[in-house]
Specification:
Oligomer: heterotrimer
Largest interface: A-C, 27 and 29 residues
Radius of gyration of chain B: 13 Å
Number of domains of chain C: 2
Number of helices of chain C: 9
CATH class of chain B: Mainly Alpha
Helix content of chain C: 25-40%
Shape of chain B: globular
Shape of chain C: globular
Number of strands of chain B: 7
Strand content of chain C: 25-35%
Distance between the termini of chain C: 40 Å
Order of helices and strands of chain B: EEEEEHEHHE
Chains: A alpha/beta (357), B alpha+beta (114), C alpha+beta (298)
Largest sheet of chain C: 8 strands, mixed
Number of strands of chain C: 17
Strand content of chain B: 25-35%
Structural class of chain C: alpha+beta
Number of domains of chain B: 1
Helix content of chain B: 25-40%
């Protein structure tokens, strides 16, 4: 019995990522496949923006028109949902007296940046000063968010080891807020100063804030190369590429980028971000930036290992950590976060729960 | 999400509204619909993608509140009482607070900074 | 015609077949004989040809590893996504319907989709929005055994540009007691083999009337919107439903009006404006059918 090929066409998507002009040359069937692949990798907004820019698809059959229309409706709704959530956060935090800063996807949307277009955001991440964390939590609970059901292990995992409170879930909308007081876990080797990030943050409107451009990029880099999930690898590299292309044109950005990477002790993630954005998506980076970051280069064996992992992750595993490479990156990321003894215990516990009988 | 705004004795949440005069802003781009077989209104908010059913008095309250002027609760109750031809009693006051609170929660009105 | 359908289905495990279902072109692929049998039994009147394109890409694949043969499983892959847990392989055929429901509810934002049974007579459409315990499927099956044309037992599909309803006639699913009730009323109808769904309920599919399938491209205007409620032992009661409340019901039962934004909402608001709206409670099928006949005769 032949096995049907039903996997999303990630190869095709990666080809389009590297050369969006290819969209014009796709057959209708291929276009349909690339829509499906993009949606799965949370890149549908990006894809449609590129399709618009390159006037694709052109003169296509009715079913493909309907599919594109549906895709547009989806990404419109994705974005609306996040903007509404931000509006509700603004309401919940009205008059609260301390800054709160949107991170990652919600921030890109709030700031109307390219990676925000039509973006599907699962959780909204918010950074607050550590001393005000309890007040922030209280404000959210007053406005309808509550903690989900968690067992004591998970609660401890979140509060003590990760850099997050357990997620807060809205009673009606079921939307999720992750409140942070730091952008990397307490148990990590690296401790970029939240106070510094908050101090440099920018106001969008009302009390909605985002990180300044350089910090936004550094956070994206740290998130990709420190956090546990590999599933968003392609998405995150596309984000970095989008941010760097957008901000890289601003005068002073690159020198600030190098300086802040050093100040926040994030030169290694910055090195990786620049390396993989260039390799995978040809992101234009000034040569002096590349050489300035060379000091943060890891030993060749580590660099080779990371190259393989990222290449494998991007080349088309469907984002699950079932492949050996996927698992290795997951292990590596967690290793950076937790001391080895804690890590072993945690991974064992997680693996038991992930594969129920 | 949908909800019925303006019915007496709503879900038992504590109102968000305080006794101080507050200024309110209406949500923009709302689409209001009514039919000639009842005096209830259906409003769609494209921002929240929510649909709400409002009684005629709730709709009236929304209209009054949404002029960006400061409104003390007592004034709102008085206006409603006059329009509905009933006395501005405790029941009407409670209704006004709860309806305003529901509309705030639904995003149909937003408090302006004082 | 049956012979032609048979030969085309040999592509099911390769390039796939393209089935025209209402306004949709659906690509179907499967290696499992259950799916082929299901299509032969229920889709013999539908336009089917070989093809790898369409609005939806539906594949029913066998289980992974040992579950291909031991307590075999089937999995639905819909536009590359697996939204459901694997099913026992004997449900592979019926799973097509569940897969299609998912596709229409999630991936067809060209139209407003409302959970409802929809039938048509004399160019005018009766919409029965379907909250739980509505009994809509039984009602629908009984109506189409009479003079009514089947649009759908699951979805009211509305074109926001025109306000018209679009047919998507498909096999009608019946559960538990409804199976016997409808078998007795419609002995000429083709039923599939009875099975148990994942929740342990008995269910069966009935082949859609050939006439409904043949006229699947004929749209029509909405005329009546009736919210049914089956309540055992209760007499048939019937009262007007204020349109504002009818609109709330519709948005409640709509899968996707929010994806269509203003257009979606206004489409439903306008539909309600055009319809006579009622609320209905019943327990006796004959009684309620007679009532519906009277109401829609005007």
């Amino acid at each position: 019995m032949p096995r049907l090929d039903v996997a999303p066409d990630l190869q095709l998507l990666v080809r389009v990522l590297r050369d969006p002009l290819k969209l014009q040359a796709l057959s209708p069937q291929q276009f349909g496949r690339v829509i499906d692949a993009a949606d799965q990798l949370r890149l549908l907004g990006w894809l449609l923006a590129q399709a618009d820019a390159h006037h694709a698809p052109h003169g296509c059959p009715g079913w493909l028109n309907d599919r594109v229309l549906t895709a547009r409706a989806r990404v419109g709704e994705y974005e609306r949902a996040v903007r509404w959530e931000i509006d509700r956060l603004n309401r919940a935090f009205l008059g609260i007296g301390f800054p709160w800063i949107l991170l990652k996807g919600a921030a890109y949307i709030a700031a109307t940046l390219p990676p925000g277009r039509g973006r599907r955001v699962a959780d909204v991440d918010v950074l607050v000063p550590r001393e005000h964390l309890a007040e922030a939590e209280a404000a959210l609970r007053k406005h309808g968010w509550e903690f989900g059901e968690l067992d004591p292990y998970d609660t401890r995992y979140y509060r003590e080891w990760m850099h997050e409170l357990p997620p807060l879930i809205h009673g009606e909308r079921r939307s999720v807020i992750d409140l942070h007081h730091a952008i990397l876990p307490r148990t990590s080797r690296l401790h970029p100063s939240s106070a510094h990030l908050i101090e440099q943050s920018r106001v969008i409107e009302d009390s909605v804030r985002v990180l300044c451009p350089v910090h936004m990029v550094l956070h994206a880099a740290a998130h990709l190369f420190h956090d546990g999930e590999i599933a968003g690898a392609i998405r995150d590299v596309v984000d970095l590429d989008g941010l760097l292309r957008c901000f890289g044109r601003e005068p002073g950005f690159w020198s600030d980028f190098i300086r802040e990477a050093r100040t926040l002790d994030l030169t290694r993630p910055a090195y990786y971000a620049v390396r993989y954005a260039r390799r995978l998506l040809d992101t234009p980076i000034p040569p002096d930036v590349v050489s300035a970051l060379a000091a943060a280069e890891p030993p060749p064996a580590v660099r080779w290992f990371m190259d393989v992992l990222v290449r494998t992750a991007v080349a088309g595993k469907s984002g699950r950590t079932s492949s050996a490479a996927g698992l290795a990156l997951y292990v590596r990321s967690h290793w950076l976060r937790m001391p080895p003894l804690l890590l072993a215990r945690h991974l064992l516990r997680k693996s038991v729960r992930r594969y129920p009988q | 999400m949908r909800g019925i705004v303006g019915a007496f004795g709503l879900r038992g949440e504590k109102p968000l509204v305080t006794a101080q005069p507050s200024r309110w802003m209406a949500a923009r781009d709302l689409i209001w619909t009514c039919y000639d077989d009842s005096d209830e209104w259906v409003v769609y908010d494209p921002f929240s993608a929510d649909v709400h059913l409002l009684t005629a008095s709730a709709r009236l309250l929304w209209t009054v509140v949404s002029d960006e002027q400061p409104h003390a609760i007592e004034d709102l109750v008085a206006t409603l009482a006059a329009a509905l031809e009933r006395s501005p009693d405790d029941e009407l006051t409670r209704f006004t607070r709860e309806t305003l609170s529901s509309m705030d929660r639904a995003g149909l009105v937003r408090p302006l900074p004082s | 015609m049956k012979h032609r359908a048979l030969s085309v289905l040999s592509e099911l495990d390769a390039r796939g077949v393209q089935v025209a279902i209402g306004p949709f072109l659906v690509r179907v692929r499967s290696e499992l004989t259950g799916v082929r049998d299901y299509l032969e039994r229920f889709y013999v009147d539908f336009p089917i040809r070989t093809g790898d394109e369409g609005h939806f890409d539906v594949a029913v694949v066998g289980g992974r590893g040992v579950r291909r043969w031991v307590r075999p499983q089937a999995s639905l892959v819909l536009n590359g996504v697996r939204p459901f847990l694997p099913l026992p392989a004997h449900l592979a055929g019926p799973s097509l319907e569940w897969g299609l429901n998912w596709c229409i509810g999630n991936n067809a934002h060209r139209y407003v989709a409302v959970h409802a049974a929809v039938v048509e007579r004399g160019g005018r459409v009766l919409i029965l929005p379907a909250p739980p315990s509505s009994g809509k499927s039984t009602l629908c099956a009984a109506l189409i055994s009479g003079e009514w044309r089947l649009f759908s037992d699951e979805f009211a599909l509305i074109d926001p540009e025109t306000g018209q309803l679009l047919p998507i006639p498909r096999p009608v699913a019946l559960k538990e007691r409804s199976i016997e009730i409808i078998r007795r009323r419609s002995p000429h109808v083709v039923f599939g083999p009875e099975a148990q769904d994942t929740e342990g309920s008995r269910f069966v599919h009935m082949r859609p009337p050939a006439d409904s399938v043949r006229r699947a491209s004929e749209e029509a205007r909405p005329a009546w919107l009736i919210v049914p409620r089956f309540a055992a032992g209760r007499p048939t009661t019937f009262e007007p439903l204020p349109r504002a409340r009818a609109l709330m019901q519709l948005t409640d039962q709509s899968f996707n009006y929010n994806y269509l934004g203003r257009k979606g909402f206004m489409c439903l608001a306008e539909l309600v404006r055009q319809c006579e709206c009622y609320r209905l409670e019943y327990s006796d099928l004959d009684d309620v059918l007679a009532l519906l006949d009277r109401v829609t005769a005007r």
